[in-house]
Q: What sequence folds into this?
């Protein structure tokens, strides 16, 4: 009976502890806390830019690495410096990691001197030095399931794996990107899935993010060594360094098509940071030169530029998402070579009227649209979409707002919304027309013509509207254009492979993997990531409720994950915020950048005076960053040097054409 009582007490304590931990993790980042987030302290100690931050598992230690080649371990809760040591590196430190299951005793650093160093903090000594990379080491990754193992990504295009149990002081190449992409490819970042440590995500030059199965790679190489023909190296072996199924690529669907234009403007696309959600089901990417993207690893979707709505039978049945009928196709057909029409009949779910509170939100969004407050309209429509995900009208209206705002990626998000609206209501008139316009803006000119012809057939009363005539003229002018890229942009598939501009260095295996890429789920806009290639974006909250990212304007941005709405902007650095590392269990955020300090942020007391670091005009900051991303690189350089460039400090969002005044009644107003 005594034993039973003891066991019962232990079980009760365990359940209570787990319950308290679950409560803490569920509620440690909430909307009221985000609204009160402010600066708590600045940790002084470095003499150069602070390029990397890392919490230990418990969250009672914070490590930082700097251009000063030192690493500092802090007690962030008491704002104390516990340890500072020179790492032995001869150049800027870019990554710092605690080795799991080492009692926070072992710290790993990677630096611009191409070296990876392992340090014993208890004796302040560097115990291992690896010099296998031939270019700057940008990131280190660790995994709890592999306690003596870690990985590095460097600008020599290699992902290396290290095992501290081995006597050898060398590492092995796990992934060689140069075998796929040529000698100029650079690996920039990597991370291991926290729930399944067999999966490794890698960011590199270009818009594609790669997900690898480490176990499959090791098993493949083990079987190759055991094979009787292991010593025979054939051309086929060299072309297939990884087994089939060991890699999966992800890409924002519009970026491969945009890449030639970006290259012409010296605008570089590179993944500067990748991280998994706490449950391991999502992958977040900060795409340098573009936006922040979230990829769903469970419900994967192909790029929408490969999808075309099926025909609906008449223009008189349903228009603009207000009503619907049965007997009309609502499917979306997947086709690897662009758009094509598909016949078929399927049930269309009846459109449900919006409840009064959502109808009010929609009306507020329509009013914002009428006042040309495009971002405000998008955020309101997004808020309504989250609550009513099967309402075609909301998607159609949000598409119109995206098309008016014209930020980078907006036309592709508008295309996605049009396709969603049409899948819910196949006779949504405005969504059909906007789809054709989006295809044209995305340079899918032949597909735009096909879609416009389909629109005229479905809605003959609109065939000679001013909007149709204007789009028809634009398409025909583009089709007869003598531009160098005209042939490349007629098909959806091949352009995705030719987009790098160095096609002769791209292997056949790489082409296949790119063609099988999956698209993003959410996109987050407002920050700017063009000046540094170590800028992070992270999930904030144990349930990944928020997304945070640094920015070239010295601010960091916080978005709601599900709505993608920007909810808070804070000034985090005098120049650039690069690093943002959320505490593992508190509403506590560490940031750093060009300033030689580490800043700590948490919810401030309501009695505290007004937070001077809050950027009140979030819309203005976002517009300025869009202009900055589209500015001439020389102008950005001059701006960083302190010169004021008119085009960067005033006016509308960059990269947008003048508003089309001839779009007619089909496209102009939301429903």
A:
């Amino acid at each position: 009976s005594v034993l039973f009582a003891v066991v019962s007490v232990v079980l009760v304590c365990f359940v209570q502890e787990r319950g308290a931990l679950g409560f803490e993790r569920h509620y440690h980042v909430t909307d009221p806390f985000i609204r009160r987030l402010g600066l708590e302290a600045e940790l002084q100690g470095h003499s150069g830019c602070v390029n990397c931050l890392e919490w230990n598992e418990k969250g009672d230690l914070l490590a930082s690495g700097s251009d000063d080649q030192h690493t500092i371990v802090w007690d962030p809760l008491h704002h104390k410096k516990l340890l500072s040591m020179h790492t032995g590196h001869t150049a800027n430190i870019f990554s710092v990691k605690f080795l799991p299951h080492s009692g926070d005793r072992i710290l790993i650093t990677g630096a611009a001197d191409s070296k990876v160093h392992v340090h014993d903090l208890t004796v302040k000594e560097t115990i291992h030095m690896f010099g296998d990379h031939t270019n700057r080491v940008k990131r280190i990754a660790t995994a709890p399931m592999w306690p003596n193992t870690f990985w590095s990504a460097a600008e020599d295009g290699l992902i290396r794996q290290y095992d501290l149990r081995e006597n050898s002081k060398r590492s092995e190449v796990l992934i060689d990107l140069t075998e796929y992409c040529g000698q100029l490819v650079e690996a920039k970042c990597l991370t291991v899935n926290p729930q399944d440590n067999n999966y490794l995500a890698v960011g590199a030059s270009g818009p594609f993010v790669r997900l690898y199965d480490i176990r499959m790679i090791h098993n493949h190489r083990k079987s190759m060594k055991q094979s009787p023909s292991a010593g025979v190296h054939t051309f086929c072996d060299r072309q297939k360094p990884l087994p089939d199924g060991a890699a999966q690529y992800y890409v924002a669907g519009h970026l491969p098509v945009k890449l030639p234009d970006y290259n012409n403007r010296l605008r570089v696309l590179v993944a500067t940071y990748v991280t998994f959600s706490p449950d391991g089901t999502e992958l977040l990417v900060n795409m340098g030169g573009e936006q922040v993207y979230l990829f769903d690893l469970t419900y994967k979707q192909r790029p929408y530029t490969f999808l075309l709505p099926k025909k609906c039978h008449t223009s008189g049945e349903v228009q603009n998402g207000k009503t619907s009928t049965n007997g009309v196709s609502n499917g979306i057909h997947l086709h690897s070579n662009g758009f094509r029409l598909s016949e078929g009949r399927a049930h269309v779910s009846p459109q449900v009227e919006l409840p009064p509170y959502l109808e009010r939100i929609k009306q507020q969004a329509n009013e914002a649209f009428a006042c040309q407050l495009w971002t405000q309209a998008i955020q309101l429509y997004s808020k309504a979409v989250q609550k009513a995900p099967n309402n075609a009208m909301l998607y159609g209206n949000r598409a119109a707002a995206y098309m008016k705002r014209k930020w980078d990626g907006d036309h592709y998000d508008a295309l996605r919304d049009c396709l969603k609206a049409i899948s819910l209501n196949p006779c949504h008139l405005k969504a059909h027309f906007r789809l054709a316009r989006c295809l044209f803006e995305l340079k899918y000119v032949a597909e735009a013509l096909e879609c416009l012809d389909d629109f005229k057939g479905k809605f003959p009363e609109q065939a000679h509207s001013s909007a149709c005539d204007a789009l028809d003229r634009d398409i025909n002018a583009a089709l007869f254009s003598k531009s160098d890229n005209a042939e490349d942009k007629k098909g959806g598939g091949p352009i995705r492979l030719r987009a790098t501009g160095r096609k002769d260095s791209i292997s056949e295996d790489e082409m296949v993997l790119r063609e099988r890429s999956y698209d993003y789920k959410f996109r987050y806009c407002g920050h700017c990531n063009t000046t540094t290639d170590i800028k992070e974006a992270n999930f904030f909250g144990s349930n990944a409720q928020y997304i945070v990212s640094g920015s070239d304007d010295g601010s960091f941005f916080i978005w709601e994950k599900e709505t993608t709405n920007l909810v808070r902007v804070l000034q985090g650095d005098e120049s650039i915020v690069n690093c943002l590392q959320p505490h593992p269990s508190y509403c506590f955020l560490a940031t750093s950048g060009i300033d030689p300090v580490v800043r700590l942020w948490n919810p401030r007391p309501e009695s505290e005076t007004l937070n001077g670091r809050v950027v009140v005009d979030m819309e203005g900051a976002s517009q300025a960053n869009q202009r900055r991303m589209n500015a001439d690189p020389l102008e950005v350089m001059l701006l960083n040097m302190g010169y004021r460039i008119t085009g960067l400090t005033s006016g509308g969002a960059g990269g947008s054409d003048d508003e089309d005044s001839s779009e007619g009644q089909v496209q102009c107003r939301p429903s």
